[in-house]
Amino acid sequence: MFLLEKRVLIRVLIFCMLLSLTPFIGVLNHASAATTLYVSPQENNDYLINPGKGWIVYSNFANANSAVWEKASVGYARFNWKDIHIGDNSFNWTPIDNMYNAAVTKGKKFAFGVMPVQVNSSSSYTSMPQWVIDAGAQYYYASDAPSTKVPVWNDPVFISKMGQFITALKDRYNGDPHIEFIDARTFGNWGEWHLGGLGGTDPGDAVKRQYIDQWSGFDQTHIIVPISGGTGMYAGGYGYYARDTYGFGAREDSSDYSPRWQKALSFLNIGPAVGEWSFPYEKLKLGQGWTGEIWYDGMVPGQINGSKYSYQPLGEWNGTDANTFLSEKGNLVDEWQNKMGYWFKMTEAAYHSDLGNGTTGSLNFKMRNDGVAPIYMKGNTGVVKVALLDSSNQVLATSTLSGVNPFDWKPGQTVTNSTYFSFTYNANATKLALGVFSKASKPEPDIKLGINNGTSSNWYVLSEMPSKPAPTPVVPAAGQVLWLKADSITGLNSGDNVSTFADSSGSSNHAVQNTSTKRPKYYANVVNGKAVLRFDGIDDYMSMGSPASLNLQNNTTIFTVAKSQGASIKGIYGRGEAMRISSSDTVPRFLVRNTSHTTKTVSGTVYSGTWNALGGTYSNSDGNLNFYKNGAWVGTDYLGGQIRNVSPDDQPNTIGAYMAWHTGDQKYIDYFFQGDIAEVIIYNRVLTVNERQDVFSYLSNKYGL
């Protein structure tokens, strides 16, 4: 009786164990059945309000009508220093906060600047704070407004008190999510870094650089430096210094004036450019601006394309000017809202049908920037995430895509992005979506794309986009110096030894093994119906020798397709101590050694018993080696210098092993690979992102990776 009860108990326990494993078994079966789906997002020209760009409403917010605010991204105002900094370490923030609240209440970001002095005419002027003068600051009277007190610009008291004010600004507004940018208006009339209307003596470059240093604490909010007409844009000038030292952006006053259309261009890819017209639109129509130019519609595309502006004024100072401009030139507003700054459009995507739901999923997508500039997020905080959605588009889980940075999507370019992600299994998941965030901490994507299939919370549902046939990738021929592919071998039966592995690149770098006992074996129909070479992990390898075409010293790209069955890291391809791709059944590795005998290695992970396409690049121009697995970026490291040179009798190019140094200054072929190798491709250059992805796509399609 006891034996029967024991058997029943054992069966119940086994049943419970199997029952508990059912979700995991289901996931594994789901993963094994996953196929790659290809979609073609449909573009649109919807008017997009996005962070870090757009039309600006200038001052007098109450005068701008609702139609203007609907089109605008930012409200901007300027203030007088003396009205805010009312005493030593004493501040009246009310004027700024009132305008801040007015913009935020309308759902817009706020930007501002604070002017040390301003002189428009003898009847419209503002002096520096009197208390700063009382504290000992030197001053002089403005040339165009004799009663206006202007600081002596290199006076230490003035510099100290201005620094006190900027520190207080930082403490109050740095990192505020509603602040778009702050102008650094430390010097000159209206804080425009010139002495027009003021007279006086320029303090010199060293002092101006000191002014710039005072703004360095703003590590979370963009600082914009006025460069009126290119002021300070030379070696040692404050403009170059602000750009190169702190990554500040630029403001070009009178950006409508054609000689100034390209003055802010040198800030491209560093900081945002802000345009400001010389006069309101209504004045420019009549040619009443200081430049004398009469408004014509080409001013808008001319300046946006010329300086790659991220921001443009929606009219100028009195508020009602914005109403007039929108009413008369609404076509320009609509056309250039998306084109100024960045305008991202996903053009194609490929993902696994299992959505990465309970598995490791892969995603390849191309993003094109149809704008004139990159996205500028202070601290380069932009990220891309994928999300699992249910049938009602509710977000069930999100995963940040490693190695994908929206700042890399430069204007006029289409960038291929490849990455892995995974989700804990969720039975309610039916859709995969992608979202772009200005900051990872944002609860929802805040960057809209110029494509269809977006949800109300700015997720773009990949699984609802039009499908497309799998592309036929082209393996680039330029610079190819080795192409070994097992499926090109003819005349052998499975199990036969391989003495010669022909190079299909046209470089005649054939791999050979003259010793019959060290030859790998050929096997047909092993991986996705394709042939492989099987290496025994004992002494099998093949050599291409040391031809000049494989003695790559400056730039290279390497691809291998292999499956390791050994617990130790062994050579798939090697050029001795100079360069190699190797792998165990769980750890792949890319190594490069330079002529100074410095070695850098990047490692990753693979799943035991799986086939993987590994890729490595090295560029002497930037000194970086990068490692990829199945198209996704694994990691990078800086080496620098040329790849170690090898002489014809030293460390040959090999597959299935590599030559290494051993104790006693001995070198010989070792680290024999145990497993299968299907393909090896080598280039004498670093492939472009799209070319590299084409090769990975070719390998993925060919071998079912």
Automatic annotation (TrEMBL):
InterPro entries: ConA-like_dom_sf, DUF4832, GH. Residues 329-423 form the DUF4832 domain. It comes from the Bacteria. This is DUF4832 domain-containing protein.
